[in-house]
Amino acid sequence: MKTFKFLHLSDLHLDSPFANIGGVSTPREVNLLKSAQVEALSNAFKFAVNEECKFILIAGDIFDTKYSSIDTQFSVTELLNMLIASDIKLYLLLGNHDSDKIDFLSRFKNVFVFPTDQVIEVSHFDEGIEIAQIIGSSYQGTNKEFINSALKQRRSERLSNSNSLNDIVQIGIFHANTRSANSRTNSIETKSSPIDYTYNELDIGLLAENSLTYVALGHLHKYQVIHDSKPLICYSGAIQGRSLKPSECGEKGGVLVSVNNSYTSHKFLPFSNFQFIRQEIVIRESISIPELQERIIQELELTILMPVVLRLTLKLEQDTYSNISRFGEQESLISSLRIALNTRNIFLESIDFSIVNISNGALQAELHKEILLELEELKNDPEIIKELLSAELLLDQLDHTLDLEELYTNSRERLISII
Asked: What is the pLDDT of residue 70?
């Protein structure tokens, strides 16, 4: 078995409109988003060239709609010619967003498009030697068990034909959901992203029984490993985020797969130059609105290193929250921040304001700190110190729901050290 590497991508969604995204309004900002998709694809293809990958898999949804712009087709053409020059083959399939308009890609000699009406195998050769068999089918939306039925048949044929049981790497590529064998439960189903059971479903057990080494999946936009033993099954996720949905936020990219004899490893790699992010900033002390704006900008500059669309959650101390909640102050802060942040390619979608939740322990520590500061100021007046210690006046002025005995003990020890 030959050692080699390949790249797994999916859900490019080229020519996404990026419409109605808060904080993104000017033509410059919209164009920055739209160009980010092609730039992410360019980053991925250049990486594959530099890493000397033998081929690239794209598991569906190359375009966002059935129409692709001339500019995007031109950019994709340039990138495919780059792959041709490096002798890198591209295997791709159609997703539910793609259409026959993608046919222009199949005109390139290094591109193979899997059909929609059957699951087929293609062999990849390197220097005349077969190094991998790739099994796949484009999205088939009318029969969700279409792929599973084909995998069952393939399993039976392989078991009855001993010549088909070889050590060549078997790789699957599909645009689908997954489910455990004999189960309706998808291992990656969540409340926020319920599974559509009318969609193509892959049976994980059948994938294993077909002796597949790696299965490249598309359709879900978040990178996920859903089976970490043979077969290794991964969603590479979208190559570029498109909104502030949780599945679209954060790093986006692809999966580099390395095959070394019988061992297969993988690594997620970020390729996007533009992110959608949700971030929280907590400010526990009382500060003015101008100071608040400066603090926000400083913190964002430290944590954000590329163009982003940002949804910010701002948790503030009570007085600061009260000041910013006065009529028009929140809107004024958001407007001012947008102007300041846009020059840094941080596009502020919205801010959610709330009061910071101070725990009982944190409040006690803060009170303790304030008491000691007061006592430091009284250290030159022994009579007042003695009066405080004897009368235990400190305790009477505090919230008795706290652990006051411990607080007083600590304060008394500190008082004694001052005297």
From this structure: 86
Q: Using alpha carbons only, what angle is made at residue 63 by residues 57 and 69, rounded to the nearest 5 degrees?
A: 130
Q: What is the pLDDT of residue 99?
A: 67
Helix (H, G, I), strand (E, B) or coil at 187: coil
pLDDT score of 400: 46
Q: Which fold has domain 275-355?
A: D-tyrosyl-trna(Tyr) Deacylase; Chain: A; (3.50.80)
For 4-270, CATH gives: 3.60.21.10
Hunting for tokens 């645009």 — which residue is that?
A: 175
Residue 373 CB neighbour total at 10 angstroms: 9
CA neighbours closer than 13 Å in the CB half-sphere of residue 315 = 8
Which stretches of the chain score pLDDT less than 70? 1, 19-20, 23, 99-102, 141-144, 158-166, 180-199, 262, 358-419
User: Do you know the residue count of the chain?
Assistant: 419
Amino acid at 32: L
d(CA 138, CA 62): 12
Query: What does the pLDDT read at residue 350?
Result: 92
Computed from CA positions of residues 399, 405, 411, 416, in that sequence, does the dihedral angle turn out positive or negative?
A: positive
- DSSP assignment string, 242-268: -SSSGGGSS--EEEEEEEETTEEEEEE
pTM more than 0.90: no
Domain ranges of the chain: 4-270, 275-355, 360-418
How far is it, in rounded angstroms, from Cα 213 to Cα 95?
22
Q: How far apart are CA 232 and CA 213, in angstroms?
A: 6
Structure tokens at 337: 């921040």
What's the gap between Cα 155 and its chain centre? 35
